[in-house]
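Holo model, 6-O-phosphono-beta-D-galactopyranose. Inputs:
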Amino acid sequence: MTKFLWGSGTAAYQCEGGWNSGGRGVTQWDDFSHNSKMNINNVTGDVSSDFYHHYDEDIKMMAEGGQNAFRFSIAWSRIIPDGTGKVNQEGIDFYKKVLASCKKYGVEPFVTLYHYDMPLDLFKNGGWENRDTVSAYLTYAKVCFYEFHDEIKYWTTINEPNYDTLCSYAIGNYPPYKHNLEERWHAMYNMMLASALAIKEFRNQNYQGQIGVVSDSYSIETLEDNDDYRKAKDNADLFFNRSVNDTCVLGKWPEEFLEKLKADNYDLSWIKKNDAEIFSQGKVDFLGVNAYDRILVKPYHGKETVLTNNNTGDGEIPKNMIANWFQFDEDKNVKKNAWGMEIYPKSVYTLLKDLNDRYPNTPFVITENGVGLYDKIEDGQIDDKARIEYQNGFVEWMKKAMSEGCNVFGYFIWSTMDLYSWVNGYTKRYGLVYVDYENNQKRIPKKSFYWYKDLIEKEENINEDD
Ligand code: BGP
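Output:
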């Protein structure tokens, strides 16, 4: 039986730095951080946690913390700097070095091909709204499979097709800052198509290993139970979960979802006749689940669509309402972090049970679970009790879901070390390891790092009795 994966995760733009080193091309996030007035926290990922130079130290520290797996993403812009055309050998060499460190310290690499960042030229040509990006992504995926297939057993194609496109095209806080759900669904459709094509290619080449999608998925809940509330809940389930998960697990867009888009009068001419076959051949081996919080909804009969997010950390609860679908509700009895995220660990239990009911026999892995806090150093230590409490709750509820039949084969805390939080900058910290940005990116393990080490030691054989 394979070992349960206990690890933590990062993403290229958020931790690497070295933005213009090693032949790396420019991405839309470099453009955002250097040039956009939407960069409200006014910081960049130019240096960030400087993983580009600290990778060996970081992976060694993970191993010392008992972690046996590391989730990270490859920067497309390091491999094919202009998005199409020339492959950059220096970029390939960098990830080979990262993979060699993983091997040296006995840490299993768990690799994402696309985690929000794309070469700027592709982005300027329409990004995920342009089907050419799908072909460019497939070429990029082929290069990565070919170069790294010996070292990587766990691949994921795309990180969070739902949340990424929601922020980029509907909330409008990520580039290209749009507020248009129709464009959002178009972009997400192309992402899912790119993912399916990459999975198909991976299988065609008979590469050893497993491949999946990382989906931000939510336990959708209501505070009341009646027909109107149940309808809102089903709508939210389609909107946030099934649009992505049915498509990559069952290989088919849910009919009810397409009906909803038609009812919204969207032009769906971007759905091409042969796509259905591609989706049916691009099913995942496992579903990666990013689990942070639940989504609480109630009916909405208004005409206006308003989508917001809290990027300031001022405690405000984001208000969201989507005409013809649902609106967000709030449970005043549940604690939230400064960015309005509920601290509600039971949500992972409900989520896993729901996913297991809908997709029986699917292997799941918690690819992200974490909490953003204003961590502070005091006497050289970071006592992040609130994080320990949050993570511990999630692990307990995950274990309960596993004991009731959910097949979960790994758990990754977000994040390995402090890193750049999209739009929120560096004050919102998630790491098990503190990064002192004022002092050459010095690493200092937080209390949660040691808590996790102890937990892994205790739980090492978590799946041995199945
Ligand atoms: C997920 C992303 C991660 C990470 C995390 C925390 O949606 O996959 O990249 O950033 O959320 O979110 P944030 O940094 O916005 O607080």
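The pocket of 6-O-phosphono-beta-D-galactopyranose is lined by residues 11, 14, 159-160, 163, 216, 290, 368, 372, 414, 421-422, 424, 428 (CB under 6 Å). The longest helix spans residues 181-204.
Archived with the compound record.
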